[in-house]
Amino acid sequence: MKKKSVNVIVVIGAGSIGQAIARRVGAGKHILLADIRQENSDAAAKVLSEAGFEVSTAVVDVSSRKSVQSLIETATAIGGISGLIHAAGVSPTQASPSTILKVDLYGTALVLEEFGKVIESGGSGVVIASQSGHRLSALTPEQDKALATTPVEELLSLSIVQPGQVKDSLHAYQLSKRGNSLRVMAEAVQWGKRGAGINTISPGIIITRLAKDELAGLRGDGYRRMIDISAVGRASTPDEVGAIGALLMGADAHLSPEAIF
User: Distance between CA 216 and CA 219 in Å, rounded?
Assistant: First the structure.
């Protein structure tokens, strides 16, 4: 009897947003949860497996090409990679400018490049960026192009991300998230050649552990002001992002390289 093919959804960053999207697109597929901390993956796997999903876990450091490649080897040993949910990252309160750039900017570009080599035809992915990237002042066309298309291993050598140019952790975060949106637009061409789609979501303030760290940190007042003046007057939930993620990973996933809300 021919063995049934397995479709694998890889979730990088086992937090609440990644889980919310996985719940909506993971039925009948194998969900591989990957996080830099094994305990995070294990906790998320317990919740999803008890809800009836087929789940396994892995550890990944998105700032390491070897680690990302190892994750891909783990996934392809299970089946064909039909989906990618990239929700890993660190916030301004959680890390230094250099760490933010290495994880959020370089790490995302690395994930896009490596998974773009193996994503199955008909597959799709989403990258969680941030509205913060769109609050950054306009860059020059040359800077936008550099963030979008500079070879991955040269990204952190760009003049725009050097210590003398990056003012603080928030600036590093905004540059990284702007870079994520631009990078996805460029990488969508390569993914499209494989018959696959990749999109970004740029959420506002979503109540996650990252947001709670920010609300309790130095920028807490600013966060609360953004919530107060938002159209709905409240922060959003991971499930609301999950609904957008499911739409972008569905049949219409190839329509647009970005969703902002």
Answer: 8
